[in-house]
Write a structure and sequence with these properties.
By secondary structure, this protein is mostly helical. Helices cover 66% and strands 0% of the residues.
């Protein structure tokens, strides 16, 4: 968590948020466009401009408390040749983009491009952290997170229909995850730590 008396830390996290959220949402938009849905392109989301991707509430939560979300990319699955497969691929594209960036950036200190201390190292740690948080948090299979669309695409059709009926309760479940002390962290923190450690070559 960023302390309110630490404006420098807030700046680092803001930069990391702009990078990670932009990559995440651009990946959703790019995949939808590749699969035949022009909706993200028409809405200006096929862009690396961070402003078009940020959600005010989700960004503030991510800055101050370490979890959050970006502005969802709107997709019309009827434009896909296979709507279920298309939605699964679009949903998976965001977290996979963050994980890819995580491992690419993690190579920089391993090859001596960025030192292990100083301003660059601190910014690198924030970029690693925010990418890991966005990836893992969004993979939780609770609507409207990406994980719910991935799970719906993996389930057999009958089970997927039954699961999608539960979507209306998703925001309540997500709120409970966020509000119950220690619950969300207990779920996502081990995966976040594992991702960052693996991206840095298994070191501390």
């Amino acid at each position: 968590m960023i302390r309110f008396g630490d404006p420098t830390g807030l700046v680092y996290r803001l930069i990391a948020l702009l990078i990670a959220a932009t990559i995440h949402e651009f990946a959703h938009a790019w995949m939808a466009d590749r699969l035949g849905d022009p909706t993200p392109r028409h809405q200006g989301r096929l862009s690396l401009n961070p402003i078009v991707h940020l959600d005010l509430v989700g960004s503030l939560l991510l800055l101050l408390f370490g979890f959050g979300w970006a502005k969802p990319v709107q997709v019309n699955p009827r434009n896909f040749e296979d709507p279920r497969k298309g939605m699964l691929l679009v949903a998976a594209a965001g977290p996979l983009a963050n994980i890819t960036m995580l491992f690419v950036i993690g190579l920089l200190p391993q090859f001596g491009v960025i030192p292990l201390s100083g301003v660059a190292a601190r910014l690198l740690r924030e970029v690693l952290l925010i990418n890991a948080v966005l990836a893992v948090f969004n993979l939780i299979p609770v609507p409207p997170l990406d994980g719910s669309r991935i799970l719906a695409g993996l389930l057999p059709p009958a089970q997927a229909i039954a699961y999608e009926r539960l979507q209306q309760f998703g925001p309540v479940l997500l709120l409970l995850l966020i509000m119950v002390p220690g619950l969300l962290g207990g779920i996502i923190n081990p995966a976040i730590v594992w991702l960052i450690t693996s991206a840095l070559g298994g070191g501390p």
